[in-house]
Amino acid sequence: MSIRQLSETMINQIAAGEVVERPASVVKELVENALDAGASRIEVATAGGGLNLIRVVDDGSGMPEAELSLAISRHCTSKLGDDILDIRSLGFRGEALPSIGSVSKLAIRSRTKAADSGAEITVEGGRVSAVRPAPTNRGTSVEVRDLFYATPARLKFMKTERAEATAIADVVKRIAISFPAVRFTLSGTDRSTLELSATSDDIEGRLTRIAQVMGKDFPDNSIAIEAARESVRLEGHVSIPSYTRGNALQQYAYVNGRPVRDKLIASAIRGAYADVLPRDRHAVTVLFLTLDPAFVDVNVHPAKADVRFRDPGLVRGLIVGAVRQALAGAGIRPATTGTQAMMGAFRPGAASYGHPGPASGHRAYNPDFRASTSAGFDPLRSPHRPLDTGFAEQRQASFDTGPLHSADARAGLSEVAETLLQSELGAARAQVHENYIVAQTRDSLIIVDQHAAHERLVYEALKNALHARPVPAQMLLMPEIVDLPEEDAERLALHSETLARFGLGIERFGPGAVAVRETPAMLGETDVTQLVRDLADEIADSDTSDTLKERLDAIAATMACHGSVRSGRRLRPEEMNALLRQMEATPGSGTCNHGRPTYIELKLADIEKLFGRR
Q1: What whole-number distance in Å separates Cα of residue 397 and Cα of residue 406?
Q2: What pLDDT, in 10s, does the model give residues 264-310?
Q3: How far apart are CA 143 and CA 86, in angstroms?
């Protein structure tokens, strides 16, 4: 078969297969064009999940009439100079508009600020019309109808209208976070409208925009991040460990203002939260990376959602280190959502108190119950015994860190009690169900899960001891030879000194193998071959050797679980207060090493609401 030149329409349709995957891809390209044009207001309207209609209107600089035909020509752009490494705009490839026009009915109207009138050009399935005058406001209006009508096979791969509309909303929200000074409006056929009013470009304005997109709970449950290493700067907000989601959809990452979905950044977030979240929970994050455009390649894929860093280890280390430092410096904070759930449980109607059936835990009323049990009543063994039998005044006195906190009793607080009440977790007042410590602060009630709290304390102590000095290693009687691809063996050799600190002694053994002479003593008998291959995969993926550290941390977590205060153990008052003080001094103690919250705080104001006092 002879070689022939493809038509321009066919070339654009092939490009559309990568650039225009779904309606959300079209919205992304058009909104980015509007932002590159300096728009301060962007309106997006859709119908049929974007398949029937997508309209993007902006108040940007607009395009002169003479350039409209170039705008829908392949590889024509105003955003790229002579240096492909110096990309400072969101778009630069010059493929979006011709690709969209090849698979839909595209109409572009535009007017510059200096022009007295506007102009219009249309493209239907790759057929371009002549430029003609058209009435329009200053800026640009792009209308896309009947998406994929020219390539109907693509329509079979689209999801439901609702799913496509949700994807469009997600795209607009992701872009909007990075441009808080721009007003965004999104409307659809379901008559719902998303309005994101313009704020400011400073930190406060950005946090306001983040709250508009992610909800008002996020700012109250997040920690500010600001760090720099060499030429890379990191800013943003990350959630406290007790504020999580069931998926990673609310993890937003930006590189030089461009929203990206990068595996390295996602891996760094997982690594930073590795020992404070359950495996099935995900942190909520908004991270902004700023670096020289020459140090990052945004031209990896036509959709421009993937990037490649020149020094991935530097970027990953910066994210992991900054997030962990922020979590450690934030002290212990319970998620406000825990308080809201607790308030909801206390409100009338939250539980059913009807007539319980035989399987219910409530005892049915029996008028003869008192008479039948009074003869055999033992106050020392009864679960309803009076306080002065099993919990005499002498024992109760040890809990008395001062009078109850009230407006009439503050003057009587002792100096020690006053100090405890002013601490973060307050003074222990009681232990209920032999597992929960009830504490009081100046303005709140604290309920602590003693097992989960002590588990975190033991875990952190074990980790500190583990990583403060080289891990003890055990010598293998015979070195184990592990065959690997040449590049994996080379990566392991480059990290051999780091691995030796964790007790794993390896060295090169020929072109495609490594010899393992020592393994960490903590691991005991382990599958050396699988361990080395997992390490090689981890280093290839993120240029780090965290897999071994995570395995050792997992063992420390198991040891902590078995070595911590068990549920059902009664604690003396001094033990409870000591536990509270250790929690206050231990970073990350707001969650156990399985990611569950260790305590819940209920503010006095919330308690007063429950009783109708506010």
Answers
A1: 19
A2: 999 999 988 887 887 778 999 999 999 998 898 887 766 667 888 99
A3: 31
Q: Are 253 and 260 in contact (CB under 8 A)?
A: yes
To the nearest 10°, report the CA torsion of 381, 382, 384, 386. Answer: -50
Which CATH number is 418's domain given? Answer: 3.30.1370.100
Structural domain of 232:
215-329
Dihedral, 188, 189, 191, 195 alpha carbons, nearest 10? 0
Domain count, the chain: 3
DSSP character at residue 131: P
Question: What percent of the chain is predicted at pLDDT more than 90?
Answer: 38
Residue entry with tokens 């399987």: 359
- Tens-place pLDDT, residues 168-209: 999 999 999 999 999 999 998 777 789 999 999 888 899 999
Q: Do 181 and 227 lie in a common domain?
A: no
Note whether 185 and 219 are same-domain residues: no
CA 152 from centroid of its chain's CA atoms: 37
Judge whether 291 and 522 are in contact, CB under 8 Å: no
**Residue spans of alpha helices (H) in 474-564:** 486-494, 496-501, 528-542, 546-563
Query: Residue holding tokens 């929960």?
Result: 436
Same domain, residue pair 150 and 292: no
Largest Cα–Cα distance in the chain? Answer: 106
Whether the CB-CB separation of 426 and 420 falls below 8 Å is answered with yes
Q: Are 545 and 498 in contact (CB under 8 A)?
A: yes
Torsion from C-alpha of 13, 16, 21, 26, nearest 10 degrees: -120
Same domain (yes/no): 342, 325: no
Residues 6+ positions from 470 with CB-CB distance below 8 Å: 500, 501, 502, 503
